[in-house]
Amino acid sequence: MNHLLKDHIETISPLSDEEFAYILSHFVFKKIKKHAFLVQEGDPVKYEYFVLKGCLKAYVADNATGKEFIFQFAAEDWWITDREAFFKRSTATVNIDCLEDCEVLALTLENREKLGVEMWKYEHFLSVKAYWGYISLQKRLQMMIMGSAKDRYENFIAQYPNLFNRIPKSFIASYLGVSRETLSRLYKS
């Protein structure tokens, strides 16, 4: 059985077709149109999402200025949610919307915990993904604190070469913490 989620989990924990079918039975398939919200500030966050198709952005908005501060993109084979709201069962403090038409698999916290208790392989997968996520976050913070605009840009291109042409440059500029004009200078040089 070929499936993007199965391939994703198997980078860490090999699964039989039966084990994967059981895991998949805990997810809900959702289609979301371009520009629609997956998560909206102030709403309860019931799911974490695995992206099958499309690209999304997670951001906080400054209501006074109307500026968006993008802190995550998610494309195929990535996970996204408002983690704090999801795990604390509270309302979202971020927005997540679709940059393209998207297809996602949604998993509730209850089903996530159930799978973790019932299947060591899934719990191991979650644990390793969490380590990798923390390492990635640490590297991103170090780059934002100590890296120049050029360093951040080059790191983004090296880390996500397939995203550069899929995402509007103004969104990439927001993610990198630079102006659109600075980004233009960087990719022309």
Keywords:
189 residues; Jelly Rolls; 4-stranded antiparallel beta sheet; RmlC-like_jellyroll; cNMP-bd_dom; CRP-like cAMP-binding protein; cNMP-bd_dom_sf
Report on this structure.
The protein has 189 residues and is an alpha+beta fold. It has a domain at 4-109: Jelly Rolls (Sandwich). Helix content is 46%, strand content 23%. It contains eight helices and eight strands, in the order H-H-E-E-E-E-E-E-H-E-E-H-H-H-H-H. It has helices spanning 4-10, 17-24, 83-88, 109-118, 120-146, 149-159, 169-176, 180-188, and strands at 28-32, 37-39, 47-53, 56-62, 67-74, 79-80, 95-98, 102-108. The strands form two sheets. It has a four-stranded antiparallel sheet. Strands 2-7-4-5 form a four-stranded antiparallel sheet. Helix 7 (169-176) packs across helix 8. It is globular, with a radius of gyration of 17 Å. The termini are far apart. The model has no long low-confidence stretch (mean pLDDT 93).
Write a compact overview of the structure shown:
This protein has 189 residues and is α+β, with helices and mostly antiparallel strands.
